[in-house]
Amino acid sequence: MIPRRDPVPTSALGGLLVWLGMTLLAGCRTETPLSPTAIVAARDGRTLWVACATGGAVMELSAEGGVRRRFPLPSAPSGLALSPDGRTLAITCAAPRSTVCLLEVERGEITARWAAGHTAMAPVFSPDGGTLYVCHRFDDDVGVLEVRSGKMWARIPVVRQPVAAALTPDGRRLFVANHLPAGAADRDVVAAGVSVIDPAARAVVANLTLPNGAGLVLGVAVSPDGRHVAVSHNLARFQLPTTQVERGWMNSAALSFIDVAAMRVAATVLLDEVDAGAANPWAVAWAPDGAKVVVTHAGTHEVSVIDAPGLLRKVAAVTGGGATAKDVSGDLTFLLGLRRRVALQGNGPRALTVAANRAWVADYFSDAVESIELGSKESTSRRVAMAPPREESSARRGERHFNDATRCFQHWQSCATCHSWDARVDGFNWDLLNDGVGNPKNSKSMLFAHRTPPAMSTGIRDSAEMAVRAGFRHIQFAAQTEDVATAVDAYLKSLRPVPSPWLKGGRRSAAAERGRRVFADEGVGCAGCHPGRDFTDLRSHAVGTANAREPADTRFDTPGLVELWRTAPYLHDGSVATLRELFAGRNGTDRHGRTSRLSTAEIDDLVAYLLSL
What is the pTM of this model? Predict the structure, then answer.
């Protein structure tokens, strides 16, 4: 096995500038949007702090309206946490070498800046305020920071892409949401899950798998009494052919509940209705009294306000208190009478905080915050603008369309429902109708799709432009105007690769440099099919991976290798979990480079190189 890279050193200005360049939309000539991506409120609900990802700052707002103060940051802010005493705001600033900033809220001064891992996010204070837990999304671990000294005491490995975390009130268990499933995608059960950390032992004590098809996990919250954990996620019906989208046939929005005492997933309920999807559930939060649990729907621009005690009673009654999540996860009527669905004025509600019986929601694409009275029966919100209206660039408009499920028939899904919000992968195989039924293919990253034609695994679309338009017609089952498709093209073309977490100080390791020479060796032949800046010859090849329903000589498009480190599982059918498994166990006929005669050390070096791209 190749060892993980060393803990990252203090952030360098050059690395931060590179990251900011990737974060801001490429080619944007209009004023930069704010993109509120995290929000936290004072206990009395009078003051809000909002992290603005592309705005590069944290804004302090009055709950009654208006920005009080703005705090510039070294890189894109990705998460916020208010200390238990309300005096200190922890801010994660995402970068390949992230920074954690401490802001003294009364003085309005940043008093500390600490180094953290790759794409730090979702900070969580311990109950005594002495420890800060930080998710490192692309390092696949959780950092443990001592607040007094800023020392990183531990890096705790989790499953895959931790993006959210929540601590029980007694501080004894930290629940970490893993964004994507791990392992091969051609199994009967494919699902992401929640890692449970014992903070005292600084170790994972359980990995709880969510129901089959659970993925794109984005929110996790512990109930005030510490008895339940709510987890928001997508539920992919990946085992069905994509012949229809209604009734959640392809994707549905879900909320799972973990029984903390039993340490198991107790139930999963659907947030959609029979003829109205509630796509792309994002943040989840409990009211301080435990009476409500609130979920944002980033795809349909709504908030669900759910009667939490009523829901838990109904779950116990239906399941008998001991059934598994699958017992109610197919019922689109389960929340009838228990949920108020509130339409928002803005677009892209992602972040959420609850205080003083109000839910505050940050609209990513509208640069605004909206509030909802939890005790009210009215389905209305109050809006606080963070900036005046501004002209969108074509790429920004395309990003908004990419994430917008209201363009889909009955609002069941958006492009982001299968490619995540950043246009990469979801880890599932999908039986799309491009090339017949019965031949599922693993979802692909959209990075550089427009400059590496053809599109789709079998090259059935001549270009990504064609694939975008076909996707709206045959996957979202809705026709779109050309300006929408053109804007999505612009967004996808603006994507830039994220530096690999396998780089050391921005450079390849010695093993990766040796692997580069193995890759370039004509006798091994990797570079023959994967040449140039994108590592693809733009051709199709029969590589012997067709399934029983396909002709044995089926040819598959040569994939590019940039960001290969984040696109597992591998091969067109997602049947290989790791690159080492591919070369050491699945390439005996040398169809993926002539690797059968390589030594174990040479394979390790080759893998190290590929993961550095």
Answer: 0.93
